[in-house]
Write a structure and sequence with these properties.
Elements: H1 2-13, E1 22-27, E2 36-42, E3 46-54, E4 70-75, E5 83-90, H2 96-112, H3 118-138, H4 145-163, H5 168-174, E6 185-187, E7 190-197, E8 204-207, E9 221-235, H6 237-248, H7 252-265, E10 279-288, E11 310-313, H8 324-331
Parallel strand pairs: 7-9
Antiparallel strand pairs: 1-2, 2-3, 3-5, 4-5, 6-7, 8-11, 9-10
Helix pairs in contact: 1-2, 2-3, 3-7, 4-6, 5-7
């Protein structure tokens, strides 16, 4: 396992010259075409994972920003002309366990993409770093009840899209909710926004901006109303996640994207035992956001209004309820 190799290499390098300057490294792969190193930088003696991308030019804007516990920087390594190197470095005084877990996972991703294009390897590497940044920002504690039911709702729509015939990788690429997208799923030229509720009377959907249901730039937009019920025979959040893992198991890229999304959402397996609530899906209704749908947008409020959040009771909305097959057809993904 690369994680074990990293740990061994860092321990070995720790005995390096404390008065030295620059990088001391150990290769993590016998394949010299794979530029993957465990490293320590002296005199700081900081642990790092270094990855080289032959023939790639990396713009400053493409390098993830500094984060809690670690930073990423472009570095130059002797004897490697034509290779762009990135170093993922642990900040002094930050927790070791989480950094070690992240570095081991990133090393595995680079190894898994050794047969891919360098560009794809880079995008996968950077994408997972950004997912870890989101995870560190959000994962101070388990999700709140509101966040939990909202996430289960998105997982249910994700599952139903795949079960209805959408390729798992395409469904995962469309899923914007964990990254805080304006709508939860961007499909074709349109979108699906997912709202979830445990209420048995009324279904209040919280709309976070004037743009969320504005179809001026994306259309058609649909709202999926997921009604859940606390049920001893239902499933916990980790069980819903396991179900999605099973659905995408035959598509490595989809599985990778799913793990990134879980990190971005702030879900940690370390908190799995805290999600004891069992919930069952008792209703799914889909609405098209058309001219008859009640909403506020930038074009329907006075010019002086720049921002608004508001609630819609979806139980009171008049108009047809659609099925997912029809929605997928309208979005051009069936």
């Amino acid at each position: 396992m690369l994680g074990d190799e990293l740990e061994f290499a860092w321990k070995h390098l720790a005995a390096g010259d404390p008065h030295g300057q620059g990088w001391q490294t150990i290769p993590l792969s016998p394949d010299r075409s794979l530029h993957l190193l465990a490293g320590r930088r002296f005199p700081e003696n900081q642990q790092a994972l270094l990855v080289g991308f032959p023939g790639l030019r990396i713009a400053r804007k493409d390098i993830p920003s500094e984060s809690e516990g670690f930073y990423v920087e472009s570095v130059t390594m002797p004897g490697s002309a034509g290779v762009a190197w990135l170093a993922l470095t642990r900040k002094s005084g930050s927790g070791a366990d989480l950094f070690h877990k992240m570095a081991a996972e990133l090393a595995e991703i680079v190894h898994e993409h050794s047969a891919s294009s360098i560009e794809k390897m880079f995008q996968s590497f950077v994408g997972r770093i950004r997912a870890w940044q989101e995870f560190m920002r959000k994962s101070k504690a388990a999700m709140s009840l509101e966040e939990e039911i909202g996430f289960i709702g998105e997982l249910l729509i994700l599952s139903k899209l795949v079960e209805s015939g959408l390729q798992a990788t395409s469904a995962l690429r469309a899923w914007e909710g964990p990254q805080g997208g304006l709508q939860d799923f961007l499909l074709g030229s349109g979108a699906i926004e997912v709202k979830s509720s445990l209420s048995t009377t009324g279904f209040v959907a919280h709309i976070t901006s004037l743009d969320q249901l504005d179809d001026a730039t994306r259309q058609p937009i649909f709202v999926a109303a997921i009604r859940l019920r606390i049920d001893p025979a239902g499933m916990t959040l980790p069980q819903y996640i396991d179900g999605v893992h099973h659905l995408v198991a035959n598509e490595p890229e989809a599985d990778r994207l799913l793990r990134e999304h879980l990190l971005s959402a702030g879900y940690s397996e370390q908190h799995a035992s805290l999600y004891e609530r069992r919930m069952t899906l008792v209703g799914l209704e889909l609405f098209e956001v058309d001219s008859a749908f009640p909403r506020l947008t930038g074009g329907t409020v006075p010019n002086e209004v720049r921002h608004a959040v508001y609630d819609i009771d979806l139980d009171q909305v008049k108009g047809p309820r659609l099925d997912l097959a029809n929605v997928m057809k309208r979005l051009g993904v069936s």
